[in-house]
Amino acid sequence: MIMLAWGSFIFLLVQLAPANSIAFDDSVGYGRQFDGIGGLSGGGATSKLLINYPEQFRSEVLDFLFKPSFGASLQILKVEIGGDVQSTDGTEASHMHYSWEENYERGYEWWMMKEAKKRNPNIKLYGLPWGFPGWVGDGTGNPYHNVSKTADYIVRWINGAKSKHNLTIDYVGIWNERPYNIAYIKTLRKVLDERGFQHTQIIASDNKWEIAADLSKDAELKKIVHAIGCHYPGTYSSHEAQHVGKILWSSEDYCQKNNETGGACWARVINRNFVHGYMTSTIAWDLIASYYTNLPGWDMGLMTAKEPWNGHYVVSPPIWASAHTTQFTEIGWSYLKHGHGVGTLPKGGTYVGLVNPRRDHLTIVMESMTFEHSKCQWDWKSPFKVSPQNVSLSLEGKWAEIKEMNMWFTQLGFDGKSNIFFEKKSPLKFTRGKATVFLDLNQIITLTTLKTGRKGSYPPSPPHTEFPLPYSDNFDGYRVHEEPFYLSQQTGAFEVLTEGENGFVRQMVTQMTIPWCKSADGVKKAYNVFGEFAWTDIAVAFDFRIPTVNGSSGVFVGARANRGGCGSSTTSGIFFFALPDKFVLSTDIERKRTVMGGELSYSPGAWHRIALSVLDNTVKLSFDGHTVYHGDVPTSSSAGWAALGTDNYGLADFDNLEINSA
Ligand SMILES: *[C@@H]1O[C@H](CO)[C@@H](O)[C@H](O)[C@H]1NC(C)=O
Ligand SMILES: *[C@@H]1O[C@H](CO)[C@@H](O)[C@H](O)[C@H]1NC(C)=O
Ligand SMILES: *[C@@H]1O[C@H](CO)[C@@H](O)[C@H](O)[C@H]1NC(C)=O
Ligand SMILES: *[C@@H]1O[C@H](CO)[C@@H](O)[C@H](O)[C@H]1NC(C)=O
Ligand SMILES: *[C@@H]1O[C@H](CO)[C@@H](O)[C@H](O)[C@H]1NC(C)=O
Questions:
Q1: Which of 84, 100, 149, 505 has its CB surrounded by the most CB atoms within 10 Å?
Q2: In the record, which residues are listed under signal peptide (predicted)?
Q3: Looking at ligand 3, which residue's alpha carbon is closest to its atom 12?
Q4: How far is the CA of 390 from the centre of ligand 3 (A)?
Q5: Rounded to the nearest whole angstrom, what is the distance from the C-alpha of residue 162 to the centroid of ligand 2?
């Protein structure tokens, strides 16, 4: 008896892997299919400034994002389906401002998708609306008022992508972080099928996991929803979602400054979304921080490029955190099973093993991010502990024959200098499938049988400089329907039109939208901010014209505008409104805090010029070259962008913009 018990004990010791050992074994089968790591352009207007970069630097930035074996080498590009609404850092243009028109030349998402495809033909494309033009809901503000109309509007965008840009949209979503509607999802599927887009899959609902309950009750719905897309899952999925038999994605994640903390956050969620939550795709908001500093979530792109006037850009830690997974996998690879190549490391941190469809390549990604250093904006759970550790790896089954694996290494230092990003180390040797690797805190290690992989580089981009002054734009030389490059639209939709040889900008929105942030769109002042947030003393002037039909009730020029995004309605600054029968000087964009006003008279249909110049507390307003006010203003805002806009949703034209130091 005693001998037997002793014998079984010995047997157990031999069978148990040594402490700190992790095994990789596919003889037990595979886990879920890997669906790719991606970035989100839009949601909103986050790529705004990139399109106007000098071609050389623009192309370099795009290489760091999309080129395989170079940088982030992204596998999915998600874009906003513009809806003329404020969607976080600005508005993106709808392909149908009005029910009777269709246009596939607006904005920059078509361009972004084509540039991504040019670099990686296998990249998957995913479109999602944040809001809609008002007509889509027949003015009710509800996109599900007539589900056929909304499905028609969305499928037209997918069709436009194909017919005008030769782009195949692989995935389409419902309504970003807003309620879904089952009848709408079913109608959308029907219209996609009717118009030849059977291959375009529906992701729902770009909110939390709540749709899992409906999927388990409704077999038809379950069949047509390809994957549940959850935002900011905090690396966990619900029990119900895990058991409903659907693919799970983190369809929006990250949301962190692209410093080392952002790199650590991104590395952590890429691994843990699968380890904890069985999510097989993770998409970063946002792809590229190409919007003015101080707009909401500034610098929260995988990298930053926000100085089109000189070409300056910064390749940030999240680019290299992405590379650890994307450069050594493809969509269609399989994760290993939990406990057989996927799990938590003995002393904290995680690892995932991935295998290609031919089952002859193995990639392992390990991360040891600490709680203190890897915070993402919206996913903070209870603290966890990670310690430095020697990890014993055990390759089993056919993998036991592997003699060495190529090794790529990142160490985050959080001091701006002791970082090592995506460095190729000498291969890790295996003896009878066994090897040990030391993993210190805040490291990423990729081990792979693939020989590919490259840390792409270009000579340093031009140095940082501020927005150049004086600046002027006559809007000639643009493509028709293009967005004015430096004007960052916060509400409304502005695009370049022409009359003979003359290019000018028109504000296009004439009706309240179906907004994403009611607070911003509800103010009905269509406006842009531009320049530096630190500007105090500045002079801004432009020509404007109110069209005789559907014209706006007036226009304004602003300085020291201190807010954008969903907070746009509460923007303070100094605003000079020129209305057909009066002028108003106000310190808020809603025209509630009026400082003074006076007489003015003009008729719609003709061009006029307004100018605002601010120096300390002294403000000078002029109209058609005549000073209408020159005096002090009690400012509520000491610095901010320049601004230009309309007094309500109505058409207005702008030309010959000039900005100067006061
Ligand atoms: C809903 O929209 C469709 C397509 O735009 C239209 O044909 C139909 O008449 C609308 N239905 C109702 C009830 O208004
Ligand atoms: C459209 O794209 C496909 C690849 O997706 C390519 O094979 C084809 O040549 C393109 N067609 C045109 C007209 O550019
Ligand atoms: C890891 O192994 C090395 C070499 O055996 C040893 O010097 C070191 O102390 C170990 N570190 C930890 C944290 O166990
Ligand atoms: C990165 O930026 C965030 C937000 O400003 C900040 O909390 C964090 O400390 C920064 N991390 C580093 C390493 O500087
Ligand atoms: C302009 O107004 C006319 C008449 O009120 C209306 O029929 C038309 O739809 C409007 N156009 C726009 C762009 O709103």
A1: 84
A2: 1-19
A3: 389
A4: 6
A5: 10
Whether residue 147 is contained in a domain is answered as yes
Question: Cβ of 606: how many Cβ atoms within 10 Å?
Answer: 10
Contact partners, residue 566, CB within 8 Å, separation at least 6: 86, 88, 296, 516, 517, 519, 520
Note whether residue 42 is domain-resident: yes
Domain span at residue 193 reads 32-333
Report which DSSP code applies to 459.
S
Structure-token pair, residue 583? 């002028």
Q: Average pLDDT of the chain?
A: 96
- pLDDT at position 390, please? 97
177 is catalytic: yes
Decide which of 303, 333, 363 is a domain's last residue: 333
- What residues flank ligand 5, with Cβ below 6 Å? 98, 510, 549-550
pLDDT, tens digit, for every residue of 485-509? 999 999 999 999 999 999 999 999 9
Mutation choice for ligand 5 from 550, 552, 648, CB with most ligand atoms inside 8 A: 550
Strands, E, within 208-289: which ranges?
Answer: 225-231, 247-254, 281-285, 288-289
Is the CB of 152 within 6 Å of ligand 1?
yes
The last residue of a domain, from among 333, 359, 386: 333
Q: Is residue 264 within 8 Å of 350, Cβ to Cβ? A: no
Pocket residue to mutate for ligand 5, from 497, 510, 648, most atoms within 8 A of Cβ: 510
442 C-alpha to ligand 3 centroid (Å) = 17
- CB 148 less than 6 A from any atom of ligand 1: yes
User: Nearest ligand to the C-alpha of residue 146?
Assistant: 1
CATH number of residue 239's parent domain: 3.20.20.80
Compute the average pLDDT of residues 412-422. 92
Contact indicator for 284, 299 with CB cutoff of 8 Å: no
Q: Which ligand is nearest to the CA of 84?
A: 5
Rounded CA-CA distance 207/258 in Å is 24
∠ CA 332-335-340, rounded to 5°: 155
* Span 266-285, pLDDT tens digits: 999 999 999 999 999 999 99
Question: Which one of 60, 92, 115, 252 is the catalytic residue?
Answer: 252
Q: What is the CATH number of the domain that holds 513?
A: 2.60.120.560
- Specify if 418 maps to a domain: no
Q: Is 459 exposed, middle or buried (0-12, 13-18, 19+ CB in 10 A)?
A: exposed
Atom of ligand 5 nearest to the CA of 511: 14
C-alpha–C-alpha distance, residues 399 and 34, integer Å? 20
Query: What's the number of domains the chain is made of?
Result: 2
pLDDT value of position 417: 83
Long-range Cβ contact pairs of 570-574 (< 8 A, separation 24 or more): 570/519, 571/640, 571/643, 572/636, 572/637, 572/640, 573/637, 573/640, 573/643, 574/612, 574/614, 574/619, 574/633, 574/635, 574/637
Catalytic annotation present for 92: no
Q: At which residue do the structure tokens 């886990």 appear?
A: 31
Which is the catalytic residue, given 102, 105, 177, 396? Answer: 177
Residue 205 maps to a domain: yes
429 burial type by CB count under 10 A (0-12 exposed, 13-18 middle, 19+ buried): exposed
CA distances from 451 to 36, 438, 454 (A): 20, 22, 10
